[in-house]
Amino acid sequence: MLKQGLELKQSQKLSPLQIQTIKLIELPVQELEQRIRKELEENPVLDEDLPKENEEDEQPREVSLSEYKEDDSIPSYRLKSDNYSKDERPQYSTFSVKESFTQSLLEQLGYRTLTEHQYHVAAFIIGSLDEDGYLRRSVESIVDDLSFRANIQTDEQEVEQMLKIIQEFEPAGVGARDLRECLLLQIRLLKKTPAVENAQKILESYFTEFTNKHFQKIMSRMGINEVQMKEAMAKILKLNPSPGGQIDDSYNDQAQQIVPDFTLDYKDGELILSMPRFSIPELRVNRKYADILLEAANSSEREKKEAATFVKKKLDSAKWFIEAIKQRHNTLYSTMQAIIDYQHDYFIDGDETHLKPMVLKDIAEKTGFDISTISRVVNSKYIETHFGIYSLKYFFSEGLENQDGEEVSTRELKKALQECVDGEDKRKPLTDDQLVECLSDKGYKVARRTIAKYRDQLGIPKARLRREL
Q1: Nearest alpha carbon to residue 29 among 363, 379, 285
Q2: Residue 94: its pLDDT value, please?
Q3: Fewer CB within 10 Å of terminal CB in the chain, N or C?
Q4: Is residue 464 within 8 Å of 211, Cβ to Cβ?
Q5: Number of H helices, E strands in the chain
Q6: What are residue 399's DSSP bridge partners?
Q7: Cα-only R_g, the chain
Q8: Is the pTM of this model over 0.70?
Q9: In 42-197, which ranges are E strands?
Q10: What pLDDT score does 20 carry?
Q11: Whole-number pLDDT of residue 163
């Protein structure tokens, strides 16, 4: 079987086909479909073959272009990429569409009695909120931007006034300038109880101590006991630190989809890889433009020659595009198969402890492709397995040795580290030195600095910040 793929060399000048292939390799499957549809719209020489039963006259007729007698002759072609499923229009799984965050706030703004000027100031502030619902910029900079970008003259007092109005909107906490203000906006809306009042006082007067988990200091200064402290903490922990996250402003039909580029089945003890989610349409020469070309063959008329030149250019473009699609498929398939072969034991049952250390270079060596090509294949691609859907990046990790001298993946080490943290006494969390000992007991030899690095990557705070009452 002829193996096709793309290999990049820095010393090599890239051909149009290679450039086209590089661009297509980077695309996940749903974007590839859009790209093909766009090419069909822009290149009149290409037609999608949509056969109809008992309607042979409606088919685009096949055209031999060998009659076009120029030195740089154009070969006839009727191409279709193999190894794809017959499901040409897959039913993509989508999530429910969420209401636009900005639109929701603007609708609430419309119910307020404001002058046109005030409305524009408030609307500008809403547009300045980040995806979490915070206003991360100073009031002074908002005043300047309103003046220079929107030609709206205002002052800090008016901006503050409009911001206070926005901070009354749903979701509670929106428009805050920092976490403390966000939580306070929410706690002040709750029914006043001793626990809520203590929680509000903690946020107002002892926020730094609270974030550093200096609970004894807070209890001493506020004159409350451990039970009261726990009740106040419970109220605070129920608040939402990211109010903007409830409504997503970036949702569109494509963003809601994760369409796996690969499917892996495990049947009768065998791992079977396929790319079933997309079908490359069969492309043929458009009859109208083929006729122009054929009519122009051996003609001396200038206009017909120019038309033939135009069609030839489009044919060349179509030829490169179709070949690039075929090479994309073969490159992706070969790369994914190499990953499966390398991580064979893991793909049997999805057990993370079977995931071997693997870097891009390992797969580049197995496939013969350049590392940059492997990187493009891995980026934004997913595989559906019998134990879940995973990004291809998930399977790559560096390695370290265990106490037996065997190489283990960093993912395995991180899992063991998480187990140590999960099993610790939260009143006396394990320090990084103690975590080194914990991993050592599990058979992993890891330096303290490595523990700190992996702890940060897992989002695990330092021991002091993990302390609970």
Answers
A1: 379
A2: 33
A3: N
A4: no
A5: 19, 8
A6: 409
A7: 31
A8: no
A9: 46-48
A10: 82
A11: 94
Quote the pLDDT of residue 288.
73
Residue 63 structure tokens = 């055209």
Nearest to 326 by CA among 4, 37, 2: 4
> What count of other Cβ atoms lies within 10 Å of the Cβ of residue 356?
18
Determine the residue type at 351: D
* 98 token code pair: 């969420």
358 to 389, 392, 418: CA distances (angstroms): 19, 12, 21
Residue with tokens 């979701």: 171
Amino acid at 20: Q
pLDDT at 290: 63
Q: Tell me the CB-side half-sphere exposure of residue 402, using CA atoms within 13 A.
A: 17
Cα distances from 164 to residues 122, 157, 160, 185, 190, in angstroms, run: 10, 11, 6, 10, 18
Cβ atoms of 211 and 219 closer than 8 Å: no
Question: Residue 348 has what pLDDT?
Answer: 92
From residue 464, give the alpha-carbon distance in Å to each of 121, 211, 213, 261, 419: 43, 10, 7, 44, 18
Q: Are 359 and 374 in contact (CB under 8 A)?
A: no
Alpha carbons 307 and 287: distance in angstroms, whole number: 14
- The pair of three-digit structure tokens given for residue 134, joined into one six-digit string: 């915070």
Place of tokens 């793929």: 5
Place domain 399-466 in its CATH homologous superfamily: Homeodomain-like (1.10.10.60)
Per-residue 3-state assignment (H helix, E strand, C coil) for 382-426? EEEECCEEEEHHHHCECEEEECCCCEEEHHHHHHHHHHHHHCCCC
Residue 391: per-residue pLDDT: 87
Contact 226, 469 (CB under 8 A): yes
Nearest of 329, 349, 391, 276 to residue 36 by alpha carbon: 329
Four-residue CA torsion sign, 212, 216, 220, 225 = positive
> Structure tokens of 352?
């993370």
Domain range summary for the chain, segments of one domain joined by +? 16-50+58-97+254-396, 101-246, 399-466
Which helix (H) or strand (E) segment holds residue 219: the answer is helix 215-222
DSSP assignments along 61-128, one per residue? PP---TT--SSSPPPP--B---SB-S-SS-----PPPPPPHHHHHHHHHHTS---HHHHHHHHHHHHT
- The Cα–Cα gap between 140 and 368 comes to 57
- Strands 382-385 and 388-391, by their bridges, are antiparallel
Q: Encoding tokens for residue 31? A: 């974007």
What is residue 319's predicted lDDT score, i.e. its pLDDT? 81
